[in-house]
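Standup notes, protein team

Yesterday: finished cleaning the Aquitalea magnusonii set.
Today: Ferredoxin-dependent glutamate synthase structure.
Blockers: none.

Input for Ferredoxin-dependent glutamate synthase:
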Amino acid sequence: MNLSLLSRYAFFVACILFSLIGLVLHQIEWLWPFTLAASALSLLGVLDLTQTRHAVRRNYPVLGNIRYLVEAIRPEIRQYLLEADGEQLPFSRDQRSLVYARAKNTQADKPFGTLLDVYGSGFEFISHSIRPAPRSDPAGFRVQIGGPQCAQPYSASVFNISAMSFGALSANAIRALNQGASRGGFYHDTGEGSISPYHLEHGGDLVWELGSGYFGCRDEQGHFDPERFARQAQNPQVKMIEIKLSQGAKPGHGGILPKHKVTPEIAATRGVPLGQDCVSPSSHSAFSTPLEMMAFIARLRELSGGKPVGFKFCLGHPWEFMAIAKAMLESGILPDFIVVDGKEGGTGAAPLEFTDHIGVPLREGLLFVHNTLVGLNLRDKIKLGASGKIISAFDIASVLAIGADWANSARGFMFAVGCIQSQSCHTNRCPTGVATQDPLRQRALVVPDKAERVYHFHRNTLHALSEMLAAAGLTHPEQLEAHHLVRRVSDTEIRLFSQLHVFLQPGELLGSDIKAEFYGRMWRMAQAGSFAPATHHA
């Protein structure tokens, strides 16, 4: 027991003794810095013994603080010293390095062969052609969005900036993203935090995301205000309106911007009070049934002057999306587009259980939505976007091959403007000025430089996509199909995506003979008048 006490307090006692010796020998000048350091550590030890929050510090005065110091810098130590190149936490060093290289317009090629285990289950690749096609100009990789009920269709790039709000991101980050989008001819999704002055400075195309908080178009009670909406939606820079039903980071949870990040500027932009957490409810107040949702879509389209209106969601209960699809058929009102967000998406902070265990991953959600629309003969009238951990040209190709018309990326463009994956987005202490409202911290983000990086990341990624398509014998992303991509399913077997997944036939859900049993069961459970399942049909 005496040895235990000696070991626990030895360093603390040594600091006190050194301080006393230094005071006695104060005439020795070179000893003073060490005496001051020992005195400071002695004072820290006294504070450790008297504080009541941390048992380790009470039992190990002075030395116990090392635990908390190392714990505080653990993410940085892991990222820079311990993390393997292919270890995804949540993005690997290889993925981040690819974005940084393309954003800086430097060489992103790798020598000496792949580091991936090509014989490991889950390895994926795109098959190439013996007769490659000429490489197409990526400037032509665009998709026309706007169905028969839309008066102002929009030509979008196949790769765009996914939803990230001003408030979650700094003013300088928003400026850089929008300036890069303006130069590159792709769109910038505002996120649900409304349209800030910084979204408008550089004239980049905007998709205005309308969340359940109706920020930028809400009344005093937080309900939808049609007049305020119309004023903003008719801005020529706003190209499309996107209703956010849920997001991959925390589906079914709503959103929170902590009060310490709600500045007077953010409060004015969103129309919320200062000094309070800015809360997005988990569901919309403007509609409560699929049929009411279709009516809301029609209303937004009219108020915006006929611009494309769609919605974004992370798939949850399958029958709920099919209920929306039934409401489309019953009402005759169609969204112009749907963006499917995967549970692997996540620029927003969320409870661990939501991050890890709620929501359908992107590919399964995308395939289900694509198949449902095909089965109802609606797929040619509604365009599909996809978002969720998309970084590279292959990531884009993998979602286009199973049904998407275009892809969005959030964290990829965050890396392009300087994010280092410190995972401190919710603390207001982002070290690179990307996700903070601290004026001094965001000053480090130099807008012209980072806007160039946003532009180059987009351009170089589409250049890589063009080269992949040419190798596969294709000239445009719309030609990608499931049989072009391959996945290894065991040590000795590979399968085409077209063999791995179920694909419905056009109109299959409209007849009595639905061969895909799961789709048939979900279709019978869905009802246009309610999101609840019609369980007696299950």
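Follow-up from PR in the comments: The first strand starts at residue 124 and ends at 126.
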